[in-house]
Amino acid sequence: MPIAVTGCATSLPSEFPMEFPENAGNMVHANAPFEMFPNCIHSNDNWREYGHKDFATFVNKECSHIIFTLANTIRMGETDGTRYTRFKSFLNKFEKPIVIFGFGVQSPDFNIVEGSMCPEAVDLIQYISSRCDVFGVRGQFTADVFAKLCGVKNTFVTGCPSTFSRPKMLRKLHDTWRESTGNFCYAGTKYFDFKERRMLESAIKSGAYMIEPVNKATHGVYLDVANNTFSEASVPYYLKGAIKEKRLTVGEIENFFRSNYALFRNLPDWYRFNEEKVALTYGTRFHVNMASILSGKPAMWVRHDARTRELTDFLHLPAIELDLATNMAVEDLAGEVDFDPFFEHIDGLIDNFNRYLDASGLPNIPKVF
User: Fold this and answer.
1) Is 49 exposed, middle or buried (CB count within 10 Å of its CB: 0-12, 13-18, 19+)?
2) H/E element, 209
3) How far apart (Å, rounded) are the C-alpha atoms in residues 323 and 316?
4) Domain covering 3-164+348-360 in this structure, CATH number
5) Rounded CA gap, 147 and 153, in Å?
6) Sign of torsion, CA 123 128 133 137?
7) 227 vs 19, 20, 205, 232, 263, CA distance in Å?
8) What would be the CATH architecture of the domain defined by 167-344?
9) What's the distance, CA 204 to chain centroid?
10) In three state form, how does the secondary structure of 85-140 look?
11) How far apart are CA 68 and CA 74, in angstroms?
């Protein structure tokens, strides 16, 4: 029987990001079940060929399981519970076993004592817990939050499932990461933040590539350059200070977006770009870095919130704190990369993930070594 998949989108339309808001990094997460299992059908795919009127009926009549690829589903301190109630109603349509990939709590730090969740979020977590033999979460912080604030104890920490989606490329990474060739590649999250803004300025000055997974204002700069309508007015707000203080020129910014900027709407193009052009990816975007190692190229995670900390800690990924990375040259940052801990643990992490798949009634995936 096929395995149904829903949640994050596996590819993005041409309207992204200007008229279709999304995070391209979520494609890495969304495609993980399709890399692992040969018989997956996404809610955006051709399930109508089975003759059913809606996706829930298709799942209940034709599928063995439904996998939900989720990301920052719960936000600590959020007071509006509308989307949680809506998501619970959606889940309630499915009768087949629910399997959760990548569920996590978004928080700036690990402070559970002062943390809070709205009643609708608590109710959602408790409902999912009741529907799953094991409730997959991405890190220990998320498991601790659910235990303390929701009384949920059947969580299973998996890390990000995308980590295990291309073991052959991880083996390639193991064999080649010290000799990786190409250009450095940067991706940031919050350019209004002084530290991340300075890292972007450094990337521009050093001639690194930049991958933009979300920001339509940033992509608008690229479109102005591509359409030959770029002017000083096109410069995004977060780089205007660099011009005023003479750290960058308008010409440097234009040339950077003409030659070094990239945005992807599908994974094959993204993986190909990494394989052919990138020596190392770095920055605060978790799945941009993940796309790099799944292409066989090294990455350095710059940690800026609880999410990146819980994931890099559990998965033993190379990571550095934002405070330190801000003041480092790219070459010095690259010198701090060490994948030995990751590869010492990767088969054990896959064993752990396979235990989650066993408990969920799904096939196992192969190890790296």
Assistant:
1) exposed
2) strand 209-211
3) 20
4) 3.40.50
5) 6
6) negative
7) 18, 20, 23, 15, 16
8) 3-Layer(aba) Sandwich (3.40)
9) 23
10) HHHHHHHCCCCCCEEEECECEECCCCCCCCCCCCHHHHHHHHHHHHHCCCEEECCH
11) 14
Q: What tokens were used for 151?
A: 């009384």
Question: CA-to-CA distance for 249 and 239, rounded, in angstroms?
Answer: 10
Long-range contacts of 147-152 (CB under 8 A, 24+ apart): 148/112, 149/112, 149/115, 149/116, 149/117, 149/122, 150/117, 150/122, 150/125, 150/126, 151/126, 152/125, 152/126
Give the total residue count for the chain: 369
Place of tokens 């972007």: 200
Tell me which amino acid residue 104 is.
Answer: G
pLDDT tens-digit profile, the chain (369 residues) = 999 999 999 999 999 999 999 999 999 999 999 999 999 999 999 999 999 999 999 999 999 999 999 877 788 888 999 999 999 999 999 999 999 999 998 887 777 877 789 999 999 999 999 999 999 999 999 999 999 999 999 999 999 999 999 999 999 999 999 999 999 999 999 999 999 999 999 999 999 999 999 999 999 999 999 999 999 999 999 999 999 999 999 999 999 999 999 999 999 999 999 999 999 999 999 999 999 999 999 999 999 988 899 999 999 999 999 999 998 999 999 999 999 999 999 999 999 999 999 999 999 999 999
- Rounded to whole angstroms, the Cα distance separating 166 from 189 reads 25
Q: Identify the three-state secondary structure at position 253.
A: helix
Token code pair at residue 46 = 């051709």
Residues of the chain within CATH 3.40.50 domain(s) are: 3-164+348-360, 167-344
